[in-house]
Amino acid sequence: MTAQEGPVSYTYRCAQCRTTSPRVIDYRLVLAERDTHRARFHGGHIPDGESITARQTQSWAEAGSLERGLTVALVLVVLLVIAYKTL
Ligand SMILES: [Zn+2]
């Protein structure tokens, strides 16, 4: 059985500022994040050690039982909070 390819997400990291962008699912968005960061914090220069990391997003079928259980528990808590607030 071969691993199915899921969606890929990206982060931009600036080693100089020691920051990592929020994860985005479109490569163009991470490039825009990089360009904005360069312009805003480095005067348009390219900071040493910057990087863009791609990560395969895990599918539900590939998730372990702990991850699935925590996800279901989180959904139930959110639903309970919504139900409680609408009473
Ligand atoms: Zn930076």
In short:
The protein has helices at residues 27-42, 65-85, and strands at 8-14, 19-20, 51-56. By secondary structure, it is an alpha+beta fold.
Q: What is the alpha-carbon Rg in Å?
A: 19 Å
Order of helices and strands: EEHEH
Low-confidence segments, given as residue ranges, are none
User: In total, how many beta strands?
Assistant: 3
Kindly state the mean pLDDT as a whole number? 89
Multimeric organization: single chain
Strand content: 15-25%
Helix-and-strand structural type: alpha+beta
The total count of helices amounts to 2
Number of domain units: 2
The largest β sheet comes out as: 3 strands, antiparallel
Terminal Cα separation, in Å?
49 Å
Report on this structure.
This protein has 87 residues and is an alpha+beta fold. The protein folds into two domains: 1-56, no CATH class; 62-87. 43% of the residues lie in helices and 17% in strands. The protein contains two helices and three strands; from the N terminus they run ββαβα. It has a three-stranded antiparallel beta sheet with strand order 2-1-3, covered by helices on one side. The chain is elongated and about 55 Å long. Zinc ion (ZN) binds at residues 14, 16-17, 37, 41-42, 47. The site of zinc ion has 7 residues, from helix 1.
